[in-house]
């Protein structure tokens, strides 16, 4: 075990991908886990693989009532929740001009509202205790428009970035023991592409499969992302890019948006 204190950690979207990798890693570190997802068999398998004290809660985190129930189940099983990781998400492969109302609503519900429900459910408990840690799993694509086919997904993650920052600022002065962190993976080699809205084949879309104009687009494994999250839990900070190259690319974009986009289109 790498840490001195055993924590109770809630992870949404824990049945596969980054969520499952985080469960395995944090279980190895000796933490108690509360794992949530819609698919019970897969969730139970992840709980067994985590090799720690883990409970599972079948929940659709796009429903506020399910998120409240998740919190209540966690508090029935353990004295308190120390870390809440909003990880559930879904992608899309449609450009801005192809988006329907349903596409945008779906992306916002899965990627933003689920995290909002989680924050609103657990932060009052954190305030009561005087400590706690919210971790929102976002995406590098919420900062830099490299993968325009992910348009509504990217927009949803940008909204999640803003909500995370606003909550952090709200809490900083009166509740300094509560940490609010944003994790921004780049491309990750998982089954995420199979659940991407608008994908018409088993082949991952370009923004999932890899390649791209820079090292920031080199895929990572879910285990590498999980290792970053494990370190973040032990050393809380506001934001972290799981791929170090992503931070420098995002900085270049923000320094001169126009020039960056012209160069991107010309490459």
Describe the structure in your own words.
This protein has helices spanning 17-28, 40-50, 64-77, 101-129, 151-172, 206-209, 222-234, 244-255, 257-266; strands spanning 8-12, 32-37, 54-58, 83-86, 132-137, 178-184, 188-189, 220-221, 239-241. The protein is an alpha/beta fold. It has a single domain (8-266), classed as 3-Layer(aba) Sandwich (Rossmann fold). The chain has a seven-stranded parallel beta sheet, sandwiched between helices. Helix 1 packs parallel to helix 2 (40-50) and helix 1 packs across helix 7 (222-234). The protein is globular, with a radius of gyration of 18 Å. The termini are far apart. Residues 200-213 have low confidence and may be disordered.
What's the SSE pattern? EHEHEHEHEHEEHEHEHH
Overall structural domain count: 1
Structural class comes to alpha/beta
Shape from CA axes? Answer: globular
Give the strand line-up of the largest sheet: 3-2-1-4-5-6-9
In terms of DSSP E residues, the strand content is 5-15%
Count of alpha and pi helical runs: 9
Q: Helical amount among residues, as a percent range?
A: 40-55%
Query: Per CATH, what is the topology?
Result: Rossmann fold
Q: What's the total count of β strands?
A: 9
Short description:
This protein has 267 residues and is α/β, with parallel strands linked by helices. Helix content is 48%, strand content 15%.
Looking at this protein, list some descriptive labels:
267 residues; alpha/beta; Rossmann fold; seven-stranded parallel sheet; two-stranded parallel sheet; 9 helices; 15% strand
